[in-house]
Amino acid sequence: IQPSDSFMGSIETDAHAEAGLIALWQHIADHYKPISTSTIAYELLNEPRYKTAGSQYRTTIGDIVAAVRQEAPKNVIIIDLPKNATLGGFDDFVQLTDDNVQYAFHFYEPYIISHQGMKAPPVWGRSLRYFRNLPYPSGSADVNGNYFPDAADTQEAKRMVADYVNANWDAGHIAARIKIAADWAAANHQQVICTEFGAARRFIDPVSRYRWIADTRKALEAAGIGWDLWDYADLFGIVKLTGDTVTESSDGLVHLVDPTQGSRDVEPDAVKALFGG
């Protein structure tokens, strides 16, 4: 379930909204009861917020699991970590007692690479939308380079570049971040999976983009963590689009129009990044 921002907030503050979500999940589980349990897994809530109420989230998600289990005692249930499924969600999170649960997180760090050129939450930097062609790894970036030609606040943009370079974002840094999830899994004897990682394609050079994707994929696999790439053919896609497949939207990014039209060919660099050595 991926609610609107307003309803996501209501789930945290309104008992009626929370009860509605629980009832919805019980209905879904009942609806799919005839399907083989090896075919369907239930991921309950995409990128739950609960940034300051981890214990409340655990209680809510526990109630949803209990409702689902009344109808689906054997299906795998996937639980996204709080704090928008970021690595920060592992902080002080206590696993459920259910033994057929997997815990999911998303990985897009550093956002200055994965969301380069995109409008994003202010906490990621108001100038992020103005960045163009900032390379990865950060050691290949020029701290004095102008990667933000149209930024209104050039001082903030310069600080963002300096922070990125000083943090030495490379394969080792990514692996160290992924280790947070792996350590939590080992300490709690649980399985964790990364259900989203990827980098927007339009405003970063392909070499940097696919190197980041490869480094992240390798770090996940080295840590024994299964993964899903976000995504296949849209803003973060890994295919070459031919024909009547895309349009320009108001945010200046490419979105799919009709997935039944045109053709999509997986880029060779994507195959190498995701399945190479």
What's a concise summary of this model?
This protein is an alpha/beta fold. The protein contains 8 helices and 9 strands.
Note down, in words, how this protein is organized:
By secondary structure, this protein is α/β, with parallel strands linked by helices. The protein has eight helices and nine strands. The strands form three sheets. It has a five-stranded parallel sheet, covered by helices on one side. Strands 6-9 form a two-stranded antiparallel sheet. Strands 7-8 form a two-stranded antiparallel sheet. Strand 4, helix 7 and strand 5 form a beta-alpha-beta unit. The relative contact order is 0.10. The mean pLDDT is 92.
The tally of helices reads 8
Shape verdict: globular
The succession of helices and strands, N to C, reads HHEHEEHHHEHEEEEEH
Largest sheet: 5 strands, parallel
Number of strands: 9
The chain-level mean pLDDT equals 92
- Helix/strand-derived class? alpha/beta
Give the distance, in angstroms, between the N- and C-terminal Cα atoms: 35 Å
What's the gyration radius in Å? 20 Å
Q: Main sheet: which strands, in order across?
A: 1-2-3-4-5
| Relative strand content | 5-15%
Low-confidence segments, ≥5 residues, pLDDT <50?
none
* Helical fraction: 25-40%
List the helices and strands and how they pair.
Blueprint (H helix, E strand, L loop, with lengths): L4 H9 L1 H17 L9 E3 L10 H18 L4 E5 L20 E7 L3 H4 L39 H13 L4 H18 L2 E7 L8 H17 L3 E2 L11 E4 L3 E3 L5 E3 L6 E4 L1 H8 L2
Parallel strand pairs: 1-2, 2-3, 3-4, 4-5
Antiparallel strand pairs: 6-9, 7-8
